[in-house]
Amino acid sequence: MATATHVMQAAKRNMTDETKLNYDFRNPFVICGSTYIPICRGQKDVSCPCTARFLMWFSTSVDEVK
């Protein structure tokens, strides 16, 4: 019980839920459905029938879903 209380107190002190993304805000992008890495305009990507976009290294996995 003491551990749970300690975790809750630490969470209340640091109430941020942010993730830094490596992207250029001036370049339009979509988010990879698997890694949440931005895919900027001009980068090669693959899409599945549900319109989700993925980085190229997931191309074999996306083919399995089709």
Automatic annotation (TrEMBL):
<dbReference type="InterPro" id="IPR010714">
    <property type="entry name" value="Coatomer_asu_C"/>
</dbReference>
<dbReference type="Pfam" id="PF06957">
    <property type="entry name" value="COPI_C"/>
</dbReference>
<feature type="domain" description="Coatomer alpha subunit C-terminal">
    <location>
        <begin position="3"/>
        <end position="62"/>
    </location>
</feature>
<protein>
    <recommendedName>
        <fullName>Coatomer alpha subunit C-terminal domain-containing protein</fullName>
    </recommendedName>
</protein>
